[in-house]
Predict the 3D structure of the following.
Amino acid sequence: MRLEGKTIIQIVSDDFEDLELWYPVHRLREEGAKVIIAAEEAGKKYIGKYGVPVESELSFRDMDAEQYHALLVPGGWSPDKLRRYEEVLSLVKKMNEDKKVIGQICHAGWVLISANILHGVKVTSTPGIKDDMINAGAEWVNEAVVVDGHIVSSRRPPDLPDYMREFIKVLENK
């Protein structure tokens, strides 16, 4: 198991893109990683865009960047909600400062934009937020997955296999 001993935090709120949350969680667990689901409230069910629920294990206020090797941000409409929490933005900033692996897919770039960590970073996302990414100082490209140091970005659900392959490689080497 390539990621045994690694702990990843997956942040969530309602209206996440179901596949963009669950596919990475299962792939990382298959590789031996521990994945913790964090949301505004611990022990609460959050519902994806297509009705698939996830129960949070940790509240945003209890997150500690020192405890995790990586962060995952799913897409959907969830990122527009997630970026409104100061605890989420603080976590993203701290993980970025510490060069811990940060994975973002689809609309998840909104969270990184609000954390102000994309200046000069090469990324991708859903084309719908291309202008937002560029206006935040990122170099946006239309590719299935982009790795720029510790930041791994991807466009949409069909790109999930490429996204997870690269995310796992980067995390494995940290």
Q: What stands out?
A: The chain has a mean pLDDT of 98. Helices lie at 18-30, 78-82, 86-97, 109-114, 130-135, 160-172. The first strand starts at residue 7 and ends at 11.
